[in-house]
Amino acid sequence: MQVVRARIAAVARAAGRDPGAITLLAVSKTFAADAVRAAHGAGQREFGENYVQEGVEKTAALRALPLIWHFIGPIQSNKTRLIAEHFDWVHSVAREKIAQRLSQARPEQLAPLEICLQVNVSGEASKSGVAPEEVRALAETVRALPRLRLRGLMAVPEPSDNVDLQRGRFRSLRLLQEELNGAGFGLDTLSMGMSQDLEAAVMEGATIVRVGTAIFGERVKT
Ligand SMILES: *Cc1c(COP(=O)(O)O)cnc(C)c1O
User: Fold this and answer.
1) pLDDT at 220
2) Confidence band (pLDDT; 50, 70, 90) for 126?
3) Ligand 1: which of 3, 7, 24, 50 to mutate, most ligand atoms within 8 Å of CB?
4) What is the pLDDT of residue 222?
5) With helix as H, strand as E and coil as C, how does 35-86 read?
6) Domains in the chain, ordered, with CATH?
C-alpha cells in the first residue's frame, strides 16, 4: 500500500500535479474481507470490486467500517439492483438501459449513485465500453436520470508495455472529458490506470487509479 502511494506521489510531482488530487482505489476482487480490513487499518478508505455477489458479501461483512465501495466490473441487467443498493460508485456504465435500471433501483435514503462512463479507447483491441463517438449521447441520458450523478469517464486500455501507447490511450480519454466539459458537463473524474500503467495514467491526468495486484498481490482466480 505504501509502495503504491509512493509511486503515485512520485509521478504526480514529476508531472507537476498535487498527489492529493489522485485517489487510490484498492481493487480487492478475489481477496477476502480480512484483506480489506487490514488495508483499512493501514489507512485505505476506497475499495473496488468486479463481481457483484462477491462485492455484496464483502460490503455486508464490513458494514461497520466507514468504507467507500466502487463497482468496476461488467454489469448484467439482472444485477443492477444489487449494485444500486450496495455500492457508492459505478465506473463501468456503458449502456443506457443499465443506467436507467441503476437509477430506478437506487434506494431513496441513499445519496445518488456516483457514475463514470466506461469508454472503449482501444478500438478493435477491446470489446468493453461505449465507443468514443457515442459517449456524448450516453452522458446526456445519465445526466437526466434523477438517482445518478455523472462524475466522469473510465477506461481499461489493452495491456501494453509501451508507455507511449499507454499514454496515448489515457490522453484520448482526457480529451473526451475536456470535450464534454466544453459542452457543460462539469466532469471531475478520470478513472484510469492499474498496477502496470498507473504512472502513464497519472501523467495524463487520472484522478482515480484502480490498483489491485500491486497492493494485494497476485490473484489466484481472475
Ligand atoms: C482487476 C482490475 C483492476 C486492477 O488491476 P491490477 O492489474 O490488479 O492492478 C483495475 N480495474 C479493473 C476494471 C479491473 O478489473
Assistant:
1) 83
2) confident
3) 50
4) 53
5) HHHHHHHCCCCEEEECCHHHHHHHHHHCCCCCCEEEECCCCCHHHHHHHHHH
6) 2-216 (3.20.20.10)
